[in-house]
Write a structure and sequence with these properties.
Largest sheet: 8 strands, mixed
Strand order of the largest sheet: 7-6-5-1-8-13-14-16
Oligomer: single chain
Number of helices: 10
Radius of gyration: 23 Å
Mean pLDDT: 93
Helix content: 25-40%
Bound molecules: zinc ion
Distance between the termini: 35 Å
Low-confidence stretches: 1-15, 468-475
Strand content: 25-35%
Length: 475
């Protein structure tokens, strides 16, 4: 009798519980054509898809409430749409919405993920996106089964190039709001004699979370790489970019005959990093060639990383989230005057490039809310952690989190739980360039340090197991 009562007290809650996992994929390729594509200036219309778009979900459980990580093949998805998907998934699974991390990949060849009118073609797509996100989570939840997990990271710097460059004096054109001269240029012409040196760095860390069943059969892979997107897609085709190609190539290497295996590539902190070698330009390649070659490299690394790592059958899971209120940037009186004049100007050729686009953005910001509520998250699974930031986050911010985190290793999923434009550091904000222009950048200049500090505070919350850290409150 005595032993029966004592046993539960001797076992630390959650700390040694067996891990369970489930993964699933749903299709979100448009079914009504043609669709408008976002990700580029100007309207691009696609009458067809080169490759399908998906939602990929992974559910993990340590005996407590499960956690969800889902990644959507979309350029970005706003918070209200993701909150709706979480609510629906929560109703179907009983998992609290606060245990769900949902991000977008940042493919630039997908339809818009928001629409004012849900009865319009674009609105019907949003409804389906929400339905299919909830379905992916519910299906993954229904597949929960005993599992083992491994975390592996290795440097893969070859595909990463910082895209912001210091340029020779006088070679940077006026920015679209006619304001101060930018000190750096985003995506300069590769091989240009005006190039001086990049304004930032890259994060070579390629992270892979491998999940297997009890017999060692692969269930899922969740990878993370800090590369904005690859592109090279013809302008009139839907594509999941290298994120989708990575999923296909990884599946064919790790689980060629198992359609239930799910490979997921989440976007790291890649706001200022792309795949263009500016210093030593590569010859122009066929459409989808770069996508395939980057995916090939990452899938090959993944197969090697998974095959040489040992998987653990238990891992305690902690997750915490917070809402951080930040000020929206507002145009100055001078910028607003310039914007209104640009909108009224009949001849766009007399204005700086993209002036009309940015004028509209500036007016929208001046009329919009004063503050934004950003959902930030930290998640610890055994010995590693994942953080989530709802912005196109500069690489230096991800590196700072990796450096300062109380839980290491850690990686950050960007464009998670919403989208609030680019997140440059204060130094980059001062340097100017595309990612800092009012409209592409919408949050206060101190947003990056505030977000970094809030994420580090969340990491401290999830650092310890509930049982071994009395007094710590973990959501
Ligand atoms: Zn972007």
């Amino acid at each position: 009798m005595m032993i029966r009562w004592l046993l539960p007290l001797l076992l630390p809650a959650a700390a040694s519980a067996a891990l369970r996992a489930g993964a699933a994929v749903t299709d979100i390729t448009p079914v009504e054509w043609p669709v408008r594509l976002i990700g580029n200036f100007g309207v691009t219309v696609a009458p067809t898809a080169h490759d399908p778009l998906h939602v990929r979900a992974l559910v993990l459980e340590d005996g407590g409430p499960p956690v969800v990580i889902a990644v959507i093949d979309s350029c970005y998805v706003k918070r209200d749409v993701l909150d709706e998907a979480k609510q629906l998934a929560s109703t179907r699974t009983g998992i609290p919405a606060s245990r769900m991390l949902i991000s977008a990949t940042h493919t630039h060849s997908a339809p818009p993920s928001g629409a004012a009118d849900r009865r319009s073609l674009e609105g019907r797509y949003v409804t389906r996106l929400i339905e299919q996100t909830a379905a992916a989570i519910a299906n993954a939840h229904a597949r929960l089964a005993p599992a083992a997990i491994a975390y592996i990271v290795r440097p893969v710097p070859e595909e990463l190039f910082n895209r912001r460059w210091f340029m020779r004096e006088g070679s940077i054109e006026t920015n679209p709001l006619g304001g101060r001269a930018d000190k750096v240029k985003m995506n300069p012409a590769a091989g240009s004699p005006d190039l001086l040196h990049p304004a930032g760095t890259v994060d070579p860390g390629f992270s892979v979370v491998s999940v297997q069943n009890q017999e060692g059969r692969p269930i899922a892979v969740l990878a993370n790489y800090s590369l904005h997107y690859v592109g090279g897609v013809p302008p009139n085709q839907v594509s999941a970019d290298y994120f989708g190609e990575y999923a296909r190539q990884t599946a064919s290497r790790l689980a060629p005959n198992d359609p239930s295996f799910v490979a997921i590539l989440s976007n790291g902190t890649s706001g200022d990093v792309n795949n263009i070698n500016f210093q030593h330009p590569r010859p122009r390649s066929e459409p989808f060639h770069r996508i395939q070659s980057v995916a090939f490299r990452l899938a090959a690394h993944t197969a090697a990383m998974v095959s040489t790592s040992s998987h653990r059958h238990s891992a305690s899971i902690q997750m915490a989230e917070t809402d951080l209120e930040l000020r929206y940037r507002k145009p100055t009186a001078e910028q607003l005057r310039f914007a209104r004049a640009a909108i009224a100007e009949p001849d766009a050729a007399t204005l700086p490039r993209l002036a009309k686009d940015y004028a509209e953005r500036a007016v929208r910001l001046s009329e919009g809310p004063d503050t934004a509520l950003l959902k930030l998250q930290a998640l610890r699974i055994g010995g590693f952690a994942i953080t989530a930031i709802p912005c196109e986050t500069f690489t230096e911010i991800g590196l700072a989190i990796k450096d300062l985190s109380p839980v290491k290793p850690v990686f950050t999923i960007e464009l998670a739980n919403g989208h609030y434009g680019y997140l440059p550091t204060p130094r980059h904000y001062e340097l100017g360039g595309y990612e800092t222009w009012l409209g592409t950048n919408v949050l206060e200049p101190e947003a990056a340090p505030k977000i970094t500090n809030a994420v580090l505070a969340l990491l401290r919350q999830v650092q310890f197991n509930r049982a071994s850290a009395p007094g710590r409150r973990v959501q």
